[in-house]
Amino acid sequence: MRILRTLFLALLSLMLSAAAFSQPLPLAKHPEDVGISSERVARIHKQLQTDVDNSRVPGTVMLVVRNGKIAVYDAVGFQDRKAQKPMQKDSIFRIASMSKPITSVAIMMLSEEGKVDIGAPVAQYLPEFKDVKVGVEKAALKRPMTVQDLLRHTSGLTYGVFGNSAVDQLYRAAPIFTAPSLADMVKTIAGLPLAHQPGEAWEYSVSADVLGRIVEVASGKSFDAFIAERITGPLKMPDTSFFITAAQVQRFAKPDVPNPLLNGDPTVKPAILSGGGGLLSTAGDYARFCQMMLNGGELDGVRLLSPTTVALMTSDQLPATTERHTPVAMGLNAFGPTPEMGTSFGLGFAVRVDAGRNPVPGSVGDFSWSGVTGTFFWVDPKEKLVAVMMVQTPQGINVPNYRQARTMVYQALTN
Fold it and tell me: Domain containing 69: what range?
């Protein structure tokens, strides 16, 4: 009997430790324990279910953390509507541009180690940018493009798909996203003219992909290896990577209509390790990343950044003279870095700088970003709040979804 009891206790201990490891963050016993209304949380679930029933989205995972504890962790609808497979809390999503904040953290970690100077010209790390020109007229640079410009999207680079300028057309014609490697992608980008003089416009762009290449050059590691060894591994984010395994594919979330921008085989390692949009993740994994930022760069005894670096990243980095009314900034509406919305941009994150002007609730100092696949997160230091929404939707409904998510989460707060 003693042997059986010992075996039982050992098995129970193993099960509990496994459960603890798989839990992204500690659970609040009741939402009320962290100032959130259970009754109002039910409104969030009801709205998410309505969106599924109306075929607005296939399904959603919503995770809300307050005071370091999970108060809302809801999986609604379908991971794959066609197969009638229910959404799971640990479903894996293409997070698209929510890759950018992780890339920005990688750069800032190297900055803290003295390996990257964010005030230095990009050409110091990538010589191919030494002779870059501006516009099809090939005007000379007024000043060099810096690493800081890449982090805040004032580099002068573009994506080529959101506008129709002469430079946009050159981007669309170039083999940027079909390059055989990240290094080749960046060389192609460097061979094209800039859309703007560095610093003069907030233009959403391939800047984060260039940052990923700087990580490789400065660290001596492939970009995926750096992310795995220095960020997702230490933070215990096992489902965050550039591709997934055969076992993980059973948790892969699919949109009702394929997104032409992101439709490759998720089990195949991509040729381009895109710091701008290549990662896959879960709500639980990404919440750990967000909580690390909310904690000032540390989680569970693992420190990636100093609090001063996090403060720098989440401060207003856009000069007053920077033009912000570019197509993506305007299309993002409440979430674009425009003065009319009381928002700006830091080093990898949109940052709220005014309590008013914006149609959605939030706090001065909250920071956020999203993905073209519908994913969205924000961190509100004043409220000690992290919210992550994972969904795969058509691009056209993203902004209304983001507004709805923020409204529904804040209406549930009671203090």
Answer: 26-93+239-272+307-411
